[in-house]
Amino acid sequence: MDVQRVTVLGSGSWGTAFAKVLADAGRDVTMWARRREIAAEIRDSRGNTGYLPGVRLPENLTATEDAAEALDGADAVVLAVPSQSLRENLTRWRELLPAGAILVSLAKGVELGTLKRMSEVIAEISGAPEHQIVVVSGPNLAREIAREQPGAAVLACSDHERAMAIQRATSNAYFRPYTNTDVVGCELAGACKNVIALSCGMAAGMGFGANTMATLITRGLAEMARLGAKLGADAQTFAGLAGVGDLVATCSSPLSRNRTFGERLGRGETVEQAQQAAGGQVAEGVMSCSSIRELAQTTGVDMPITDAMHRVCHESLDPRAAGAELLGRQNKHEWS
Ligand SMILES: NC(=O)c1ccc[n+]([C@@H]2O[C@H](COP(=O)([O-])OP(=O)(O)OC[C@H]3O[C@@H](n4cnc5c(N)ncnc54)[C@H](O)[C@@H]3O)[C@@H](O)[C@H]2O)c1
Ligand SMILES: O=P(O)(O)OC[C@H](O)CO
Question: What GO molecular function terms would the record report (predicted)?
């Protein structure tokens, strides 16, 4: 199975950085951009300054605002739009998807309302079988990868051949992708860690230090892993790149949009102010805290940090009151 021609649908931070990873691995890449001027900048000036300032894009990467043109003849199609917009976007693209193309999901979220993981949304809308869908997860802050800082990722697919095809298409001097067959675990970990990063940012915004961060990261991991166990994920995934790896990167980096969003709330800004400051870029945890909380409630899993983040973001709970509530919960055994 050879993947040479790849289409990336979405030209935001990660879509652009991932397109560069593919191009630097020798693939011919065409990006689709919603805005004509971004497609023109990528094509003509080799940059996407709004999302990745200072990054020069390789010559074997081009862009268009025409989805049909972008998708023509693709061996693999990378879906690089925010989770809550994936259904709507994919519905417009589905007739254009080349038959048999591997569908690669970059989004980290759980859909509001349906509570579906992104690969489930992709399968439903595209009609593609699950073994044709590869999920990308791991500690992948777009700006670091675009600057060619060394990093790794997980490519999860029930079909090992397809995961390996995408592995070959993304391996380069600075990016090391691993395969994994635990699609459920990788997707849940990727979505949940954004919510925990919100909480870490919030703690930082309130002036708390390393002990508080480590506590939120560790107890966040515990609640993510509980949800994963309930939904059939492999426990090992949470100890890997998609779990603790992504959690540590996102919770500790000022480049994370989720952590930054939380930090603003912790400093006393409103959700609307934090949203405005994000300048149109999406902090997925703000919506996913609600869908993950509902998923936890419907499956009977205790996720107190996620619950607190939902109430801060959507029910006007004060971050300090949220912290006090988390500390005031009934004492228990670490692993109960
Ligand atoms: N940025 C990162 O470091 C990073 C790393 C790993 C995973 N991810 C995940 O990848 C997904 C995409 O992230 P990103 O960083 O490229 O996002 P982004 O906000 O930087 O870009 C989103 C892209 O989707 C397009 N788009 C299409 N429909 C949209 C809509 N309705 N609303 C908003 N944008 C729309 C935008 O035009 C833009 O090109 C997210 O789920 C994110 O969690 C991001
Ligand atoms: O900037 P964030 O918070 O969306 O996080 C980016 C990536 O998911 C990190 O792996």
Answer: glycerol-3-phosphate dehydrogenase [NAD(P)+] activity; NAD binding
